[in-house]
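Researcher: Structure prediction, please.
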Amino acid sequence: MEDVQNPGNLGSILRTCDAVGAAGIILLGDTTDPYDPAAVRSSMGAIFSQRLIRATLDALITWKQQHYLTMIGASDSAEIAYQAMPHGPPILLCMGSEQHGLSDTHTAACDDTVRIPMVGRSDSLNLAVATSVISYEIFNKWRANEQIRQSDNHQITK
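Model: Predicted structure follows.
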Protein backbone atom coordinates (compact mmCIF):
# COMPACT_ATOMS: atom_id res chain seq x y z
CA MET A 1 0.00 0.00 0.00
CA GLU A 2 1.58 3.24 -1.16
CA ASP A 3 0.73 6.59 0.45
CA VAL A 4 -2.72 5.62 1.78
CA GLN A 5 -4.05 8.75 3.46
CA ASN A 6 -7.47 7.72 4.76
CA PRO A 7 -7.34 5.62 7.95
CA GLY A 8 -10.84 4.25 7.22
CA ASN A 9 -9.65 2.95 3.85
CA LEU A 10 -6.63 1.30 5.44
CA GLY A 11 -8.81 -0.36 8.08
CA SER A 12 -11.21 -1.64 5.41
CA ILE A 13 -8.28 -2.98 3.40
CA LEU A 14 -7.01 -4.79 6.51
CA ARG A 15 -10.45 -6.35 6.91
CA THR A 16 -10.47 -7.55 3.29
CA CYS A 17 -6.93 -8.90 3.60
CA ASP A 18 -8.01 -10.94 6.61
CA ALA A 19 -11.07 -12.22 4.73
CA VAL A 20 -9.04 -13.46 1.76
CA GLY A 21 -6.21 -14.92 3.85
CA ALA A 22 -3.55 -12.39 2.90
CA ALA A 23 -0.28 -12.70 4.79
CA GLY A 24 -0.27 -9.01 5.67
CA ILE A 25 0.24 -5.50 4.41
CA ILE A 26 3.44 -3.66 3.55
CA LEU A 27 3.07 0.08 4.09
CA LEU A 28 5.12 2.19 1.70
CA GLY A 29 5.73 5.92 1.64
CA ASP A 30 3.62 8.33 3.65
CA THR A 31 0.88 5.86 4.59
CA THR A 32 -1.45 6.71 7.46
CA ASP A 33 -1.07 5.15 10.90
CA PRO A 34 -2.74 1.72 10.92
CA TYR A 35 -3.42 2.21 14.65
CA ASP A 36 -5.37 5.42 14.11
CA PRO A 37 -8.74 4.91 15.84
CA ALA A 38 -10.60 5.17 12.51
CA ALA A 39 -8.37 2.47 10.97
CA VAL A 40 -8.76 0.17 13.96
CA ARG A 41 -12.54 0.69 13.99
CA SER A 42 -13.00 0.05 10.27
CA SER A 43 -10.75 -3.02 10.41
CA MET A 44 -13.31 -4.66 12.74
CA GLY A 45 -10.45 -6.39 14.57
CA ALA A 46 -8.57 -7.51 11.45
CA ILE A 47 -5.66 -5.27 12.43
CA PHE A 48 -4.83 -7.89 15.07
CA SER A 49 -4.69 -10.74 12.53
CA GLN A 50 -2.61 -9.09 9.82
CA ARG A 51 1.14 -8.53 9.76
CA LEU A 52 1.97 -4.88 9.19
CA ILE A 53 5.38 -3.82 7.93
CA ARG A 54 6.66 -0.37 6.98
CA ALA A 55 9.29 -0.57 4.26
CA THR A 56 10.98 1.36 1.51
CA LEU A 57 10.39 0.44 -2.10
CA ASP A 58 14.02 -0.70 -2.40
CA ALA A 59 13.63 -3.05 0.58
CA LEU A 60 10.39 -4.42 -0.89
CA ILE A 61 12.02 -5.07 -4.26
CA THR A 62 14.94 -6.88 -2.61
CA TRP A 63 12.56 -9.03 -0.51
CA LYS A 64 10.38 -9.77 -3.55
CA GLN A 65 13.40 -10.95 -5.52
CA GLN A 66 14.74 -13.07 -2.66
CA HIS A 67 11.40 -14.88 -2.39
CA TYR A 68 10.71 -15.09 -6.15
CA LEU A 69 7.39 -13.29 -5.85
CA THR A 70 5.40 -11.52 -8.52
CA MET A 71 4.26 -7.96 -7.89
CA ILE A 72 1.11 -6.78 -9.65
CA GLY A 73 0.15 -3.12 -9.55
CA ALA A 74 -3.23 -1.57 -10.15
CA SER A 75 -3.42 1.26 -12.66
CA ASP A 76 -6.23 2.77 -14.68
CA SER A 77 -3.84 2.91 -17.64
CA ALA A 78 -3.01 -0.82 -17.58
CA GLU A 79 -3.91 -2.82 -20.66
CA ILE A 80 -4.78 -6.02 -18.77
CA ALA A 81 -8.09 -6.33 -16.91
CA TYR A 82 -7.72 -7.71 -13.41
CA GLN A 83 -9.65 -10.89 -14.31
CA ALA A 84 -6.99 -11.74 -16.90
CA MET A 85 -4.05 -11.44 -14.50
CA PRO A 86 -1.24 -13.42 -16.10
CA HIS A 87 0.01 -14.65 -12.73
CA GLY A 88 -1.51 -16.72 -9.97
CA PRO A 89 -0.96 -16.59 -6.24
CA PRO A 90 1.17 -15.87 -4.37
CA ILE A 91 1.12 -12.26 -5.53
CA LEU A 92 2.20 -8.98 -4.02
CA LEU A 93 -0.63 -6.60 -4.88
CA CYS A 94 0.57 -3.01 -5.10
CA MET A 95 -2.08 -0.30 -4.67
CA GLY A 96 -1.55 3.46 -4.70
CA SER A 97 -2.93 6.46 -2.89
CA GLU A 98 -6.52 7.59 -3.05
CA GLN A 99 -5.71 10.83 -4.90
CA HIS A 100 -2.91 9.82 -7.26
CA GLY A 101 -2.98 6.05 -7.59
CA LEU A 102 0.24 4.11 -7.87
CA SER A 103 3.26 6.33 -8.50
CA ASP A 104 5.36 5.87 -11.62
CA THR A 105 8.26 4.64 -9.48
CA HIS A 106 6.14 1.95 -7.84
CA THR A 107 4.48 1.03 -11.12
CA ALA A 108 7.90 0.51 -12.70
CA ALA A 109 8.80 -1.91 -9.90
CA CYS A 110 5.79 -4.11 -10.70
CA ASP A 111 6.05 -7.18 -12.94
CA ASP A 112 2.66 -6.34 -14.49
CA THR A 113 -0.19 -3.92 -13.97
CA VAL A 114 -3.93 -4.55 -14.15
CA ARG A 115 -6.99 -2.33 -14.32
CA ILE A 116 -10.57 -2.59 -13.19
CA PRO A 117 -12.78 -1.96 -16.25
CA MET A 118 -15.41 0.73 -15.71
CA VAL A 119 -18.26 1.81 -17.98
CA GLY A 120 -20.06 4.42 -15.87
CA ARG A 121 -19.28 8.08 -15.39
CA SER A 122 -16.96 7.50 -12.45
CA ASP A 123 -13.32 7.31 -13.39
CA SER A 124 -12.20 5.40 -10.31
CA LEU A 125 -13.28 3.35 -7.32
CA ASN A 126 -12.60 3.98 -3.67
CA LEU A 127 -9.17 2.54 -2.78
CA ALA A 128 -10.59 0.02 -0.32
CA VAL A 129 -13.18 -1.15 -2.85
CA ALA A 130 -10.61 -1.46 -5.66
CA THR A 131 -8.27 -3.39 -3.36
CA SER A 132 -11.15 -5.71 -2.41
CA VAL A 133 -12.13 -6.38 -6.02
CA ILE A 134 -8.62 -7.39 -7.05
CA SER A 135 -7.88 -9.24 -3.79
CA TYR A 136 -10.96 -11.41 -4.26
CA GLU A 137 -9.89 -12.22 -7.81
CA ILE A 138 -6.53 -13.43 -6.47
CA PHE A 139 -8.35 -15.36 -3.72
CA ASN A 140 -10.69 -17.02 -6.23
CA LYS A 141 -7.75 -18.06 -8.42
CA TRP A 142 -6.06 -19.56 -5.37
CA ARG A 143 -9.26 -21.44 -4.44
CA ALA A 144 -9.61 -22.78 -7.99
CA ASN A 145 -5.99 -23.98 -7.91
CA GLU A 146 -6.58 -25.67 -4.54
CA GLN A 147 -9.65 -27.47 -5.89
CA ILE A 148 -7.66 -28.73 -8.87
CA ARG A 149 -4.85 -29.94 -6.57
CA GLN A 150 -7.33 -31.70 -4.30
CA SER A 151 -9.01 -33.32 -7.29
CA ASP A 152 -5.64 -34.49 -8.64
CA ASN A 153 -4.68 -35.88 -5.22
CA HIS A 154 -7.99 -37.72 -4.97
CA GLN A 155 -7.45 -39.30 -8.40
CA ILE A 156 -3.94 -40.40 -7.50
CA THR A 157 -5.13 -42.19 -4.35
CA LYS A 158 -7.87 -44.14 -6.20
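Model: Strands lie at 24-28, 51-55, 70-74, 80-81, 91-94, 112-115.
Researcher: Thanks, that helps.
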